[in-house]
């Protein structure tokens, strides 16, 4: 995936997470009977996981796709 696309998605996801944490991402529906239903579009935990995944993708892409793991010595 292109670095620009990952960055754009990350900025948008962080913005949505901020809105969710500030209580601005809730949706309120009032049906024909006057019943009020309030919900959030996504849970904070799943959104935070998505942000962490995007950050990992961005980090890997910026290093040229090379995975960095534990250092091992072979004798």
**Which shape, going by the Cα principal axes?**
elongated
- Taken as a percent bin, the fraction of beta residues is 5-15%
Oligomeric organization of the protein chains = single chain
Q: In order across it, which strands form the biggest sheet?
A: 1-2
Low-confidence stretches: none
Q: How many DSSP helices? A: 2
Q: What's the number of structural domains?
A: 1
**Helix and strand sequence:** HEEH
| Protein structure class | alpha+beta
- Our Rg estimate from Cα atoms comes to 19 Å
Question: Given this structure, which CATH class is correct?
Answer: Alpha Beta
> What CATH architecture do you see?
2-Layer Sandwich
Largest sheet: 2 strands, antiparallel
CATH topology: Head-to-tail joining protein W, gpW
InterPro entries: GpW (IPR004174), GpW_sf (IPR036626)
Protein name: GpW protein
GO biological process, one term: viral life cycle
Structure overview:
With 75 residues, the protein is an alpha+beta fold. It has a single domain, classed as Head-to-tail joining protein W, gpW (2-Layer Sandwich). The protein is built from 2 helices and 2 strands, in the order αββα. A two-stranded antiparallel ribbon has the order 1-2. The longest helix is centred in the N-terminal third of the chain and has 19 residues, at 3-21.
């Amino acid at each position: 995936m292109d670095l620009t696309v990952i960055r754009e998605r990350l900025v948008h996801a962080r913005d949505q997470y901020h809105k969710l944490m500030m209580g601005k991402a809730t949706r309120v529906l009032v049906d024909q009977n006057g019943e009020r239903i309030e919900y959030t579009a996504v849970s904070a935990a799943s959104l935070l996981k998505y942000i962490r995944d995007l950050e990992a993708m961005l980090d890997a892409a910026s290093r040229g796709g090379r995975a960095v793991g534990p250092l091992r010595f072979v004798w």
